[in-house]
Amino acid sequence: MISTFLKFKQYVATVIIVGSLGSCSSDDYNDTLNPGLDPGSRWITVAGARMGENPGDGNGGTLIYSVTKEQAKDPSVSIAPFDNGFIVPSNRTARLQSSEDGNTIFNISYAGDTGGNYTKYTVNGGQGFMSTGSEISIAPYVGTAPRWIKLFDGDQTGAAVYVSTENEFDANGDYVRTDATIGVVTLDLQNSIINSFEEHSVALTAQEEAAGYYISRIDMPVLNAAGDKLYIGARLSKVNPATAEGDSDYPILGSKTIVLDYPSLLNPTVISSTIGHGNTNGYRSINAFLYNGSVYQANQSDPEGSHILKIDANNEYDSTYDFNLDEALGVNDAYILAWRPAGNGKAVIAYRHAGSVEGAAGAQGFFAIADLNTRTAQKIDAIPYHPDFYLFQYQGFVVDGTDIYVTQAPVGQNGNIYIIDTETGNVTKGAELINVEGSHFIGTF
């Protein structure tokens, strides 16, 4: 077996220093280790989340390692980021983004002393990630554990968000509503400067608020096709109006999204779906994508199983677009953990469902291929599944033409990269992924 690490073995001594410093300089980097990319190739960066205290928690930090797409497709290549990878600055699992061509990795540290620090790295292959540009902290705007995403505007802008809540009472001490104040900051990724920051109190309908509903979490901003509106996914929670205590058993409302003018980040409104119910904030992976002039958005915790919802150019949910994953896959309680479409409208979805086995870190995950146009989906059987195949923290998919690259490895066990040709449905088994005890892979970038 050809080990990618062996190709870089002369660099091992430097790797230890690189990991501790958080970057490698051009002086440290040996050009013989980076032969450059052939025309038509690109870097594929594999990310792994190391165990903290419990298997699969990902709290021990994030490591990344890059190979060419030809190496990623080669099952004789072995990739061992937990042993040889670059340590991404982050107290817990890093929230990574990559440039469209794979040549740059963007990171905002999550929690800890460096929480909220933005850095970017040029990808040089293997453990070679060279810090480039200046760093900036967005912590003063959105805290040290920001939820952020790279907008699809040619790698120009990142957007980070937060929400804080406070119960409001009248003069008699009776509950009135829960105020949800959102903060949104946009960041120039190329020049490391803040573009805009705005805060807003975002209200639901008077009837919904009187019943105790409020926006409790927001995430996953995405631009509309016109580039003049920013959509932000939302999770709703509820209190009992009689006691102002948290309520856990209540009707799930239609899925909601906050809409802001862009780039001003002004004039917040809330739109609601009549098709899907549940949350639209996702978790750690991008949850909404622009395709064919509309935004397609996954929802979670839907009583009827996750849907992919459609927001049209009029900035309203399409009440005729009904794509229910339960119906498409023939399962119950489908839950979209992460997903990514290619430019042809075919998407790869990471999901769990009521039949998932409870593994070492949580419910077993699966991959499916879906078609946004025909609203159909099919489980990808060519990828092996294991009770410990955990995808709840999955973050990254590389889209290269009609190919989508994913990682497959149970918690603490070896696995492989798999390449799904979304046009034909063919699946190629690629490079081997070397794991360590309790850790797991969180995707490709």
Automatic annotation (TrEMBL):
It comes from the Bacteria. This is Lipoprotein. It comes from Nonlabens dokdonensis. The lineage of its organism: Bacteria, Pseudomonadati, Bacteroidota, Flavobacteriia, Flavobacteriales.
